[in-house]
UniProtKB/TrEMBL annotation:
This is Glycoside hydrolase family 95-like protein. Keywords: Signal. Pfam families: Glyco_hydro_95_cat. InterPro entries: 6-hairpin_glycosidase_sf, 6hp_glycosidase-like_sf, Actin-crosslinking, GH95_cat, Glyco_hydro_b. CDD domains: beta-trefoil_FSCN-like (cd00257). Residues 1-29 form the signal peptide. Residues 310-623 form the Glycosyl hydrolase family 95 catalytic domain. It comes from the Bacteria.
Length: 915
């Protein structure tokens, strides 16, 4: 596990104040209006205005790399923070087999410094434009942007100060000797070997140049708008010395060998930089913004519950972060990705674990970004030959087994060497089903025939060969019920995989007129497959007795999602709900999908609370990221799926709007999302009322919609001529459609025309947002002022340290309030003072630690000085310098805090959480 240090010694990083702003009311929310545009078949949205309310804003410089804001162009990503100027860690998806040996640091410095002598500061991640802009007063602006559909990004500087004496841009790498090989790199030496160039074209660093798999990269930069000279500083650092100018752009690239002609990443980097300089900053910025604007206009989501848009804000931020690294030749890795501040240190896996990757990607069909999911699918479809060859070697079968943990080239080393995953058989079905869904959402018949069906057929044949038979019944004698139950009979994942895959394979085989001779065998398996086992009205993960648990997955609920075998309105819905209610590991990990299952089962309040729970547990940093060492992007991606499934479901070929509503009479939900068979679906709900269902048919398929008003009379109207196609008083309505035509399902008694037309918009966010009742925040506030500070969470009991007015400190709060917030004041020498936000008093450790800690000093003195000890596990300890004793939070938090321990233990550890 990687160590994530939460504090730095720089004073700016230790004074963790913040501005807490109220959540804006829903933009355009009114029970009497509607935003549906009958011409476009989507909601009227001022995307620029609406998305601006979800910008992530830092109102003070951030020196902590872990809090760095994330910006990317789909191929290359960077995390930015203020340390000796502007510092960014740069990475890309296609640079190395392990995704950790990727690019390096970029540092921009000026003399005097960019952050010297200013009075106002704001750094804004604009989701709509895809840019990161930092403003110091009105005379310094730094904008990080990208070139679309390339590996090039840029830093544009507007600096009108007089007297700027020098500007330098450094590209650097870390200590090559720390690079460790996990599995997939054939020659570690090439990743420890660096070459440089510095010439009239710019400067760069190259690694992995002799990698046998064709990986490797060149990290290089040049300048537009100012003269410069290039130099090699040392073996892992190059520099551009830039002649001071009031306006200039630094272009940089992480040029991959695998995507370069003749695997020449050096020349590729030079060509890329020359091309973007030729295009110019202004045009590139316009093209980049237009790329992101087009991305956002594919869909829309509004989800306001409890008077807060925080969950919605995370939805858009997570969408941005995944898409910003999601368009490479390889999918963005669920844990090592393109956004991390861990140098060359990999987290626990180089491989692609399907369970984790599906969390990152599966929501993007509904949000109308099938091209993103295709990037994920391509990893498997391009390796079909390698996977089949290994299946023959391992199982003596010419069918298809897909390892749960797979390398970039289809290798199974991460699977066969692990008892957790070596006998998982269902991954092939998941991969095949995702390919089939690409067809269902895009109507790409060529993809279905040439990519999806071969995968589906051979995955089905693998199961057909692997199943055992007892008389007429087919059963799975022994396999893993995913990672949690090993070598069990009739794993529910296998039975569900067969029941999902076989009917679809028969259907597609018939549709394509292929493999007619195989269909009878597949149907025979379906007709005689072993049943799921139940106990006390709930599904079991395998045939009893229940095996020892090895992980904390809720395996029995795989039936609900992603295997799509049950949900709202099924004969076994109650059994599935019972299974959810008694699931053994509620929200047990960063990849937990309980809230998606809740939405699929119509448990709207549980889905809402689940989204809150996952963010409370795992969204630890103000940039939206996590300190969890078991993953990074899964909880963000699964949040997208949970929200989409709460608003729209079409997995069973029925369009169902608002299927999982929270118990909030003030809930406001609006969306334009994509349903299977290419229906762009829009709907709005507020004041307890669903207003209409709008459908834009892209491919002319048959539509089937669930009546959101029960059995009230509804009608289907074609908007082009207002023709009424059908009127029914039933729970569902089916109707034929024509391609590129818009339809509205509306109540006869209250049609769409009874609502006034509106456009949805919003006001730009200017500060910090917080998720009520949790420590989760987005953004950073100013260094002083109300509402900010840092909360300290006692690891021993999970309680927040509280400083009531003139009283003893305790650790008994269950949620962050004013009394739990502290300014952490840097006193130099690694020492800090804690000042309570509640009463502006300093925390004291008096009388050699015998007395409880109190908060009653008006000025910092020796009693208020604590040594801050980074424990290397995401926590800190505080040691009173006056007596060298550690601060303790004992007895479940009921007793006062004291400072009388001689060594660090669990009672002395605290997690600092910026507010």
């Amino acid at each position: 596990m990687s160590v994530r240090k939460l504090f730095r010694t720089a004073a700016a990083g230790l004074i963790l104040g913040g501005l807490l702003v109220a959540h804006p009311s829903p933009a355009g929310a009114a029970p009497t209006d509607a935003a549906f545009n009958s011409s476009t078949g989507a909601l009227n949205v001022d995307y620029a205005g609406y998305l601006s309310k979800h910008d992530i804003v830092y109102n003070r410089p951030n020196t902590n790399p872990l809090y760095g804001l994330t910006v990317g162009n789909g191929h290359t990503g960077a995390m930015a923070w203020q340390q000796n100027g502007l510092t960014m860690q740069v990475s890309g998806t296609d640079l190395a087999e392990q995704s950790t040996y990727a690019a390096g640091n970029l540092n921009l410095q000026t003399s005097p410094a960019l952050d010297s002598g200013y009075t106002t500061f704001q750094q804004r991640l604009s989701l709509y434009d895809g840019t990161l802009t930092t403003r110091y007063d009105n005379n310094r602006t730094v904008t990080v942007l990208g070139s679309p559909n390339s590996e090039v990004m840029g830093v544009h500087v507007e600096d009108s100060r007089s007297g700027v004496g020098s500007i330098s841009l450094d590209l650097s790498l870390w200590d090559m000797n720390t690079v460790q090989n996990i599995a997939d790199v054939p020659d570690l030496n090439t990743w420890r070997t660096v070459s440089t160039f510095a010439d009239s074209t710019g400067a760069g660093l190259s690694r992995g140049q002799t990698d046998a798999n064709g990986f490797g990269y060149t990290f290089a930069a040049t300048v537009e708008g100012a003269a410069y000279s290039a130099q090699t500083v040392n073996g892992t650092r190059v520099r551009l010395n830039i002649t001071p100018s009031s306006s200039y752009t630094i272009w940089f690239t992480a040029a991959s060998r695998i995507n370069a002609p003749s695997r020449n990443s050096v020349q590729q980097a030079k060509n890329q930089l020359a091309a973007v300089k030729s295009t110019g900053y202004a045009t590139t910025l316009t093209n980049y913004r237009n790329w992101w604007h087009g991305f956002w206009q594919k869909s829309f989501v509004q989800y306001n519950a409890g008077g807060s848009d925080y969950l919605e804000n995370v939805y858009y931020l997570a969408t941005y972060m995944i898409a910003a690294g999601g368009y490479g030749n390889y999918p963005v890795h669920f844990i090592n990705g393109v956004f991390r501040a861990t140098q060359d240190n990999s987290k626990w896996s180089n491989g692609y674990w399907y369970w984790n990757q599906r969390d990152v990607y599966n929501s993007f069909y509904a949000s109308n970004h099938a091209d993103l999911v295709k990037t994920f699918n391509n990893l498997y479809s391009r390796n079909l030959g390698a996977l089949k060859a290994y299946t023959q070697t391992r199982y003596g079968s010419d069918a298809l087994w897909v390892p749960e943990t797979m390398g970039w080239d289809g290798n199974a080393r991460g699977t066969v060497n692990s008892d957790y995953v070596n006998d998982i058989y269902s991954t092939g079905t998941e991969a095949a089903y995702n390919m089939y869904l690409y067809y269902r959402y895009t109507n790409d018949a060529s993809y279905l025939q040439n990519v999806a069906y071969p995968f589906m057929k051979d995955a089905a044949r693998f199961y057909q060969n692997r199943l055992s038979r007892n008389g007429s019944q087919y059963y799975m004698a022994s396999s893993n019920s995913h990672e949690t139950y090993w070598d069990v009979k009739n794993a529910i994942t296998d039975l569900a995989a067969v029941r999902l895959l076989f009917p679809l394979t028969i259907q597609v085989s018939t549709q394509l007129g292929l493999d007619a001779g195989l269909r009878a065998g597949w149907q025979d398996v379906l007709n005689n497959l072993a049943p799921y086992q139940t106990q006390n009205g709930a599904y079991l993960p395998h045939d009893p007795p229940i095996s020892q648990t090895r992980n904390n997955e809720n395996v029995a609920l795989e039936l609900v999602w992603p295997y799509d075998q049950t949900g709202i309105g099924y004969a076994d819905t109650q059994t599935a709900i019972n299974t959810w209610n008694v699931r053994p590991f509620p929200y047990g990990n960063v990849w937990s999908n309980d809230h998606v299952h809740a939405a699929r089962l119509g448990l709207g309040e549980q889905a809402y609370q689940g989204m809150r729970t996952m963010l409370q547990k795992y969204q630890n940093y103000p940039n939206g990221m996590t300190s969890n060492t078991n993953g990074v992007f899964e909880y963000l991606g699964i949040h997208l799926a949970a929200m989409n499934e709460s608003l729209l479901q079409s997995y069973n070929d029925k369009i169902r709007v608002f299927p999982a509503l929270p118990n909030d009479t003030g809930f406001v939900g609006k969306f334009t999302l994509l349903a299977k068979d290419g229906f762009v679906v829009s709907s709005e709900r507020e004041a307890g009322e669903t207003k209409y269902v709008g459908l834009r048919s892209q491919f002319g398929k048959q539509a089937r919609a669930v009546n959101p008003w029960g059995t009230q009379e509804i009608r289907v109207r074609r908007t082009s001529d207002n023709a009424i196609l059908t009127t029914v008083s039933a729970g569902e309505v089916s109707f034929a459609t024509t391609a590129n035509t818009t339809y509205v399902v509306e109540r006869t008694a209250k049609p769409l025309s009874s609502y006034a037309s509106t456009t949805l918009t919003g006001s730009a966010n200017q500060g910090v947002k917080s998720l009520s009742g949790t420590a989760s925040t987005l953004g950073l506030g100013t260094a002083t002022g109300g509402g900010g500070g840092t909360a300290l969470l006692a690891q021993a009991n999970g309680k927040y340290v509280s400083a009531p007015a003139n009283g003893n400190l305790i650790a008994s709060a269950t949620a962050v309030g004013a009394t739990e917030r502290f300014d952490i004041v840097d006193l130099g020498g690694g020492n800090v003072a804690l000042r309570s936000r509640a009463n502006n008093m300093y925390v004291c450790a008096e009388n050699a630690g015998a007395n409880p800690l109190i908060a009653n000093r008006a000025a910092a003195g020796s009693w208020e000085t604590f040594a801050r000890i980074d424990n290397g596990d995401g926590t800190i300890s505080l040691r009173a310098t006056v007596n060298n004793k550690y601060v303790v939070a004992e007895n479940g938090g009921a007793a006062a805090l004291v400072a009388n321990r001689d060594a660090i233990g669990p009672w002395e550890k605290f997690t600092p959480i910026p507010q």
